[in-house]
């Protein structure tokens, strides 16, 4: 049995600048798609040697204040369904506590290598499934010429909205109708469990609200920030009690995130729903490759496969880091480009509206 100990990495100015950039992009992603940016932040920290459990715990610690800022910002645009966020957040708390026990058990039994392997494999599986589905859905919506039309809800969402269970029906503005809160329990629990075990949840929670409950993409992404706040508050306290939170990491990425999340939230008002899905899926699939390259390294450390040469390990780590940086840059460029195009189009519309009044005055 491996002793449960936590080693925090040494921070130099390059690491600090990199972590700030990771936080900035994570904030952009969080404000733009409402996922909390965890699938960027956790791998981003791990790419410079932060143990998986410490990355998860520190990520959760920074999450709740950032999510609160993003939720307030997007609530001003009328995009947040507070009631749905709190209802799903309630069951998410149970998932957070359950997931934290799983992660701590893996760390205690298999050490950092086991924890890192668990986080990486979970990322590859979940990112692959969710990222591929969301990308295909976004491309289909765009190709069918439905980008400017209201989103169509799925068959399962229609069925859920048609089921009437007396005593459990709750009205949610994002769904424009009542559904049984019982359907939100497994979704919230799964979201909380993922958030505690690998510091994600949003890229499960957002698609779940969109495709299972039938919420529009904009409102689902904004409402997830409420859930992220609730989960982050409890999860960070749970992990801090175990000594797994590196407050330095949390504060550095929070500094970048608080700036990025506001830009990301503003960007959602100028883009179509399918663009949010494209951004979400592209970043997921690039991060998937980054984490996937590290799996052989962790398997070697655990003795599951033959030991890898130092050169092979170095190449895999370097490649993983470079691809992670590429994912960060890709996400930032897509979001900033969408924001710029949206602002430019809005200015053109304002000029067209102002022209008739100007001609009248003349």
Automatic annotation (TrEMBL):
Keyword Transmembrane helix: yes
InterPro entries for this protein: TM_pro_TauE-like, TSUP/Inactive_protease-like
Localization annotation: Cell membrane; Membrane
GO CC term, one of those recorded: plasma membrane
Family to which this protein belongs: Belongs to the 4-toluene sulfonate uptake permease (TSUP) (TC 2.A.102) family.
Topology of the protein relative to the lipid bilayer: Multi-pass membrane protein
Organism of provenance: Thermodesulfovibrio yellowstonii
Pfam families (UniProt xref): TauE
Parts of the chain that traverse the membrane: 16-41, 117-136, 179-204, 211-237, 249-271, 278-299, 319-340
Top-level taxon in the UniProt lineage: Bacteria
Protein name per the record: Probable membrane transporter protein
Keyword Cell membrane: yes
Keywords: Cell membrane, Membrane, Transmembrane, Transmembrane helix
